[in-house]
Please model this.
Amino acid sequence: MPGNDCSPPPDFDSIPVTASGALCHVCDIVGGCLASRMMEYSGQVGLVRSNSRVLGQGENIFREGGEASALYVVRSGSVKSYLVTEDGEEQVLGFYLPGDVLGLDGLGSSACMSSAITLETTSICRMLFAQMSEQGCGRVYPKLISDQLAREHNLILMLARKDADGKLASFLWDLSRRFKQIGYAGNAFKLSMSRQDIGNYLGLVIETVSRTLTRFQESGLLEVSRRTLEIHDLEALKHIAGGQASH
Amino acid sequence: MPGNDCSPPPDFDSIPVTASGALCHVCDIVGGCLASRMMEYSGQVGLVRSNSRVLGQGENIFREGGEASALYVVRSGSVKSYLVTEDGEEQVLGFYLPGDVLGLDGLGSSACMSSAITLETTSICRMLFAQMSEQGCGRVYPKLISDQLAREHNLILMLARKDADGKLASFLWDLSRRFKQIGYAGNAFKLSMSRQDIGNYLGLVIETVSRTLTRFQESGLLEVSRRTLEIHDLEALKHIAGGQASH
DNA sequence: CGATAAATTGAGTTTTGTCAATAAAGGTGG
DNA sequence: CCACCTTTATTGACAAAACTCAATTTATCG
Model:
């Protein structure tokens, strides 16, 4: 590292475009690409063009306080969103898998209210607010907003009501459910986030995360080694997780 | 109580209208009424008419799962929003004071994602989504959405990172700030919610809430008796509260 | 004026966090 | 390709915070 060892990590804008100009329906995310849904609603094809890029691990998609100009869809890989407190500490708000939409909290304010960073090599599609204000507002935004609120309600529920076992079980069960939903194996996947990130998200220290996972393994619920996870008893996990929000 | 002792508590719709037909700008909430802001944006006066009612203590404004058709503005009094988990337990999501807007999480979905109930005699103004889709979308909703998200981010931060002292100090400091903002005394006010509600909101049992308040009182930070609160050292309280979200 | 509900206080237990040591994995440069 | 270094994760011993259970006390509402 010659000279400058604190060059800022690259943001979305500094990454070369992968498929510039291609129509967004070439992107075959499960559930349909956001852009193709937009085009359906507007009755116009080709109105919105894709703007997707591949980011390496640990690269910011957007940063708190930066200009909020777009929504971002995860095409592959994974992302964590987080905020930084006044005293400089991080709080993880969520993890995003392929098909998930990021950046909604920039909609209202001109500045981003949170940051997002890739957890591994990740392909991201950007959709500028400006390009979708008409259709987005009436049809797409409301759904995204309620998804986002539901997600946060569940986190609040988890943080306020559950013990360490319940939190971890909820977390793993939710990941499993989501992987399954997008066509991946729900009972065996790689954790793209560190124990530190998991603990931060769940309001636990990493030692508690580690010990709880070990205990889950000892009781035959699952097998875990570093980032590799295999769930053996999804039902038991759901039972330990306890109640979710009912919406 | 002759006969039926489980009649459902009244919802907004069953309460007689107070000022039906009056223009909304008669409502002088600090910061301006939502409806008057709408009218400004649309350039039309008298488009939206007020629909405000007075509810007694413990009456639901809307309920999770019910039809989501409107936003509600607190004119006076106070409200708590909450959700009910699959296993029937309640989670308090927030408290709303005069000027605060409720019901945003109904925007996306057709059904309400949370419930809201009055904590005391409360005057509520209802604004139907249908009456404000045009202007609301472009100008008013985004601001409300980012407010709502900011509110929830702060709660997540509090639940995940703070101990009992930090949570209570944050809670009281936030209430103080908000009362002050709407022109009430920030250092002496009535807590309209029970210890149970406070504990539920903060992820603590009521005994911990009670003990922590007693300890705050013993150290001269404040004086509290039942629902009556007087804050003596707001700065110290803010210090104990620690960092907030920085947006 | 009692009855019921809400809040406080105390004692003891459980859970989770803290501190410290170790182990395993991944990356780097020889 | 291997040794070394750094980062990440695990494990143990102990301390601290919060919870549970139980007993009072204090309001509030018929």
In short: The domain at 162-241 of chain A is CATH 1.10.10.10 (Arc Repressor Mutant, subunit A).
